[in-house]
Amino acid sequence: MMPKILVSACLLGKPVRYNGRGLGVESSILQRWLAEGRIIICCPEVAGGLPVPRPPAEIAGGDGGAVLAGKAAVMDRHGTDISTAFIAGAQQALDACRQYGISIAVLAEKSPSCGSGMIYDGRFGGTKIPGAGVTTALLRAYGIRVFNQHAIPAAAEAVGHGQAINP
Ligand code: SF4
Fold this sequence. Notes:
The chain has 167 residues and is of the alpha/beta class. Helices cover 34% and strands 17% of the residues.
């Protein structure tokens, strides 16, 4: 069986972002994976119980790994600590990966859940810092490789290598 890939729901145009919109990335690779039935769609924030739309959120005091360690918090723009929902959503993403034997994920960059290289700095001023979101941090802790929407070809290559190792 062809390996499945976890993909952020918003990257497939699902209107689940904080502002009620999707991102809708154009990618022939994503389209092929969809046609092959290999994509497991996931929105960790909705899975964690947050509504659509919702106030924007950023990680204050660290990155996703720090949130998982209890050393930083996900705060929404109104100052509410919503770390618990983010961690619950991350756990559901991990559960999906385990259920489907997923080792590769393509998640939306800059999100406090799904970011894999850059996140916002927690001050809601538009400043980005290097770091990963909560879901990405948890998936990586379990050996799952996370790519962003700008690196889908690299994700496809990694999936191909995984397929060769685990047919
Ligand atoms: S970036 Fe992740 S958590 Fe945010 S809307 Fe997209 S799938 Fe949901």
